[in-house]
Amino acid sequence: MATVDAQRRELSGGYVAINDGFVVAIGVGTAPAARVSIDASDCLVTPGLINTHHHLYQNLTRAFPPMTNSALFGWLRTLYPLWRALDEESAHVSAWVGLAELALSGCTTSTDHLYVHPRGGGDLLSAEIAAARDLGFRFHPTRGSMSLSEKDGGLPPDDVVQDHDDILAASQRAVERHHDRSHGAMVRIALAPCSPFSVTKQLMIDSAALAERLDVRLHTHFAENDEDDAYSVATFGCRPTQYLEDVGWASSRTWLAHCVKPNDDEITRLAAAGVGVAHCPSSNLILSSGIAPIVKLRTAGVHVGLGVDGSSSADSASLWMEARQAMLLAKLASGADAGTARMALECATRGGAGCLGRVGEIGELSVGSVGDVAVWSLTGPQFAGAIGDPIERGCAVGRRARSTPSSQGSRSCETVTS
User: Is the CB of residue 371 less than 8 Å from the CB of residue 11?
Assistant: First the structure.
């Protein structure tokens, strides 16, 4: 059992006991009596994985042929016209499918960056929250937005952007309606203007002020590729990190999607500000964005989580796959000894909790944490000869996990024994 707790305990023959959705005991030896027991012999037991960046509605345009060989800006211009048709029904269906797919990869908590709100589309955020509740999934959706259309020098067409004041009002309503501040909450809301090339500078400033007043988190795309950096320099006269500081987003309230292109000075500044990063390796590869410097970011003290990104740019939503990709890319970029299985597991769990401001609550197995557990079988032909370290075996080969999110009912007591 890999607890990924503050001491990074690894327990051979361990158990975790869960009562009313929270871990009440963890250790080695005889497990407490329980109404339900799961025998996880020949398995690796970990905390449920955390997805820190997604666009669930993009399940509706997965692997769309015209955009499979495009870089970011051309990719977006191809897909924006299709996303105009998004409504409550399609938001609910795509969220249900996307979250179910995540669960198959051991994921029990997910964010979503829903920034497309077509006119007349309805309450899309509430529709996807309903899907998460139906599945019993721990959910951190963001009230995303776009305010800068093509006529204003942005990328999106006019009918998928919104007015500045309408965005702020809708953001506040979403927080007031859905945000749960309690320990172990199933739903929390963040504010998420889409990107520097789709919102105004004033919206970034005002969203930061609103997040401060409502005490919620902030999320946006950041330094995703060379085009993104060039846009920032041409439009704002500075690199993305300076822009982030100028609009009041350089704080521990913020986590950023991608962060592929920061230089060493910017990494130091992001770490000092307490900013988190959602690393999206598969999407970055498909869109040829580059390799995010996650080893340097983690060394500097940045919380680095993992994100599957939307299925239009990453094809599949597997947190296990992203963990493996993160491990391999770290080896490629920073040396064979830098990208380890434990690093990848920590990004997929504790690092994600750091991005969401929930360290000690999710992404680990410790007394008082939520009882979200993933059980990974280590048997079968694909594990033949893999007789060493179970964490290395799990990350090297992997398979579908049995996810047991603690939200799926008020259980009087459950134990998982490895």
Answer: no
Task: Let me know the angle formed at the C-alpha of 190 by 189 and 192, rounded to the nearest 5 degrees.
Answer: 135
Tokens for 70?
């495009």
Give the bridge partners for 139, in sequence order. 110, 187
CB 83 within 8 A of CB 409: no
Q: From 303, 297, 309, 257, select the one nearest 276 (Cα to Cα).
A: 303
Q: Using one digit for the tens of pLDDT, what is the confidence trace for 144-187?
A: 999 988 788 766 777 778 999 999 999 999 999 999 999 999 99
Q: What are the start-end ranges of the E strands in 265-307?
A: 276-279, 304-306
Note the pLDDT tens digit of each residue in 40-66: 999 999 999 999 999 999 888 776 655
3-state helix, strand, coil in the chain (%, to 5): 40, 20, 40
Strand order in the sheet with 14-19: 22-28, 14-19, 414-417, 36-39
- Ordered by where they begin, the domains of the chain are 14-48+364-417 (2.30.40.10), 49-355 (3.20.20.140)
Contacting residues for 337 by C-beta, under 8 A, at least 6 apart = none
Question: Does residue 232 contact residue 262 with C-beta atoms inside 8 Å?
Answer: no
The pTM for the full model equals 0.93
Instruction: In whole angstroms, give the CA distance from residue 401 to residue 158.
Output: 42
Strands 276-279 and 304-306: parallel
Answer whether 139's CB lies under 8 Å from 112's CB. Answer: yes
| Block residue for tokens 């964490």 | 391
CA–CA separation, 90 and 127 (whole Å)? 9
Strand partners, 237: none
Rounded CA separation 374/379 (Å): 16
